[in-house]
Every structure is written in C-alpha cells, then in structure tokens.
Amino acid sequence: MSSSSQNYLKIGIIGFGPFAQFLVKTMIKQGHSIRATSRSDYTDLCTQLGVSFFRDMNAFLESNNDVILLSTSILSLSQVIKSLPLNCLRKPTLFVDVLSVKEYPRDLMLQVLPSDSDVLCTHPMFGPESGRHGWKDLSFMYDKVRITNEATCSSFLQIFASEGCKMMEMACEEHDKLAARSQFLTHTIGRVLAEMEVEPTPIDTKGFQKLVEVKESTSRDSFDLFSGLFVHNRFAKQQLREVELALETIKQQLLKRMTNEELEQS
C-alpha cells in the first residue's frame, strides 16, 4: 500500500473507551475526521480531542460516515449492533471491528448489517501501553470479509500501514485459533497468578519477574475482556482443557518422582 492510496476518511466510532481514544489520537494526527458515540457521555473529552460526539444514535448514523468502527466490549457487541437504526445510514458504509475475537463479530456483522455494507474484521495486536511510543513493527491483523469499495478499505488500512504496522491479512478462523493459543493462554496464566496473589519477593529470579509482569499486565484488563475471549472464541475451551490436563500431568509426574524417592530411601 503506498501512501498515495490514503484519503482522508470520515470515521464514526461506536464505543469510545480507552482503546478507541488511543486509536483516535493517531487518526486525528493523520487528518481524518472523527465522530463518536458511546453509552457514557464523552462530550468534554471529545471537545478536547477535536471529535464530534453524538448522544443520538440516529444522528450519528445519518452523519455520512465513510467508515463505522465498532469498538465495544466483546460481551456487549451483539446488543449494540442489533439495536442500531440501520435505516438511518445515508450510503453504503464500511463497518470495521477491532475486537480481540474475530469469527464472532464477523458472523454478527454479516447477519445484521445491510448487504451493501462492507465488512472488515481487524485486530490491532497492541494497545495504549505497548503502542504508546508509536506503532512501528506492531502487528495489525485484518480479514477483508466483504469488500466492494476497495478505495475506502485501502484508505482505512493505510492508517495502520503508514505508522509502520506489520500488516497481516489472515482469515478470522485462523486468528481465533492462534489467539486462543497466545492471547487467551496469557490471560489465563495471568489470572491464575492473580488468584494466587503472586507478588515480588526479595530473591526474585528473572523468570519470576516476568511472571509478575504477566500477572500485572493481564490484571489491568477487565474480567469482561477475559471472559469475552473465552465465551466468544470457540478454540478457547479446548485451550483451557489443555491447561488443566497439562497441570494434572505435571502433578502426577512430580508425585511419581516423590514416591520413587521415598521407596529408594526406605
């Protein structure tokens, strides 16, 4: 994608939480026009950022967006998307999601949105913490699920490509398989460590320090996100079973070794 393929877009964002606010700062810097709507009132923040905030969903959908970005929580997406007054759309629109699971929003968008709406599923594999010094070399996954307007789609993807992101085109199913093995597994281990109330000690090894970092970074995310990764990624259930099985296998190996040691000493 060359930089010449980027046109300034009118981007409407549904769900203006911390992740959307993080993305918007770069979009504004690039010259895109942003409007937002959310359950909470972000009027003051949007005024500071130079974003038009809409309390009324009808007016938001009528505001002639080129792109509508869905940045809700995983658990609230179905309710949000099914309640949209889609008859207010003025023209065929590109709908993009940025959720951490991919098959679920893809299926919902194909089921609910008008057939002339384009659908792009994406997952920026970074956030406000990892991307605070720029997006260069950070991974951006996308799947062109239903695209008829290549120019708008290309211009949206260019937002991330022009910042130096590693652009990874990948099917939603493949993403969810890999994410269950990486993102969900990381969150699961972090939650286990948090449940155990693991804290730094005066004699920490480097390995243990990394475990504490995993616990702290995953604990910063909401339990809603963690449960969304489980409930709406069909590969996560198997991953959780594998964690349980692995822990039991290791436990049995240790108990067997302990029994052998006791027998040798008796």
UniProtKB/TrEMBL annotation:
<dbReference type="GO" id="GO:0004665">
    <property type="term" value="F:prephenate dehydrogenase (NADP+) activity"/>
</dbReference>
<dbReference type="Pfam" id="PF02153">
    <property type="entry name" value="PDH_N"/>
</dbReference>
<dbReference type="GO" id="GO:0033730">
    <property type="term" value="F:arogenate dehydrogenase (NADP+) activity"/>
</dbReference>
<dbReference type="GO" id="GO:0008977">
    <property type="term" value="F:prephenate dehydrogenase (NAD+) activity"/>
</dbReference>
<dbReference type="InterPro" id="IPR059064">
    <property type="entry name" value="TYRAAT2_C"/>
</dbReference>
<dbReference type="GO" id="GO:0006571">
    <property type="term" value="P:tyrosine biosynthetic process"/>
</dbReference>
<feature type="domain" description="Prephenate/arogenate dehydrogenase">
    <location>
        <begin position="9"/>
        <end position="266"/>
    </location>
</feature>
<dbReference type="InterPro" id="IPR003099">
    <property type="entry name" value="Prephen_DH"/>
</dbReference>
<dbReference type="InterPro" id="IPR045011">
    <property type="entry name" value="TYRAAT1/2"/>
</dbReference>
<keyword id="KW-0560">Oxidoreductase</keyword>
<dbReference type="GO" id="GO:0070403">
    <property type="term" value="F:NAD+ binding"/>
</dbReference>
<protein>
    <submittedName>
        <fullName>Arogenate dehydrogenase 1, chloroplastic</fullName>
    </submittedName>
</protein>
<dbReference type="Pfam" id="PF26213">
    <property type="entry name" value="TYRAAT1_C"/>
</dbReference>
<dbReference type="InterPro" id="IPR046826">
    <property type="entry name" value="PDH_N"/>
</dbReference>
<dbReference type="InterPro" id="IPR036291">
    <property type="entry name" value="NAD(P)-bd_dom_sf"/>
</dbReference>
